[in-house]
Amino acid sequence: MAWVIVGLGNPGEAYARTRHNTGRLALEYFARARDFSQWKTDTKSKAAISRGTIGKNLVVLVAPDTFMNKSGSAVAQYVKNPKAAERMIVAYDDLDLPLGTIKLSFDRGSGGHKGLESVMRAVKTKKFARVRIGVSPQKPSGGVRKPRGEKAVLEFILQTFDPNEMEILKRVFKKSGDAIEAIVQSGPMRAMNQFNSV
């Protein structure tokens, strides 16, 4: 059974470099760096698909072409049940982490992320690996400066990354790619021990 790696974002050029598209950007970077197949549009699932291997494992990359809160409908075409979800990784933007950082997790709630909520509803489980990619500014004290209130959050996540931030993200995407490989090769728990302690 193939691993399914999902990068969450919104479709269309207008959203391409926004904070909320970080998961999809990470997936596109991963596909290029690992020499996966050209992206193809799967009209049935409404997603862009790329295929390749990690070690001896077949891997399908899924970038939903639905809006964020409908991501699960695309994922459900590739992950048919909770058992299959154990071989799924979802990459997405996380407001609780500072830009330049990632954190791996498994079997957690959505943290209010609408795309993740949609995926969890579709696959009927929380038991899958996540690559959480930080998008919030960092305070001098080291904490994150998160926007407050629904309107402020929406405005912030739909902002475009500036060139400096994109440079930071390139380094982050290299690390998130290594983390994805580690999850596929060694399992989520071992990968979490390796990447969350750095």
Characterize this entry briefly.
The protein has helices at residues 22-33, 71-75, 82-85, 114-123, 150-157, 163-186, 188-195; strands at 3-7, 40-42, 47-54, 57-64, 88-98, 102-106, 129-136. It is an alpha/beta fold.
Features:
198 residues; alpha/beta; 7-stranded mixed β-sheet; 7 strands; 7 helices
The percentage of residues in β strands lies in 15-25%
DSSP strand count: 7
Q: What would the average pLDDT be, to the nearest integer?
A: 93
Q: List low-confidence stretches.
A: none
Helix content: 25-40%
Largest sheet: 7 strands, mixed
Measure the end-to-end span: 31 Å
Helix and strand composition category: alpha/beta
Helix count equals: 7
Q: Using the alpha-carbon principal axes, give the shape.
A: globular
> What are the secondary-structure elements, in order, as H or E?
EHEEEHHEEHEHHH
Strand order of the largest sheet: 2-3-4-1-5-7-6
Using only CA atoms, what is the Rg?
A: 15 Å
Characterization of this structure:
By secondary structure, the chain is α/β, with parallel strands linked by helices. 40% of the residues are buried. Strand 3 (47-54) and strand 4 (57-64) form a beta hairpin. The chain has a 7-stranded mixed beta sheet. It contains 7 helices and 7 strands. The protein starts with a strand and ends with a helix.
SSE blueprint:
Blueprint lengths: L2 E5 L14 H12 L6 E3 L4 E8 L2 E8 L6 H5 L6 H4 L2 E11 L3 E5 L7 H10 L5 E8 L13 H8 L5 H24 L1 H8 L3
Parallel strand pairs: 1-4, 1-5, 5-7
Antiparallel strand pairs: 2-3, 3-4, 6-7
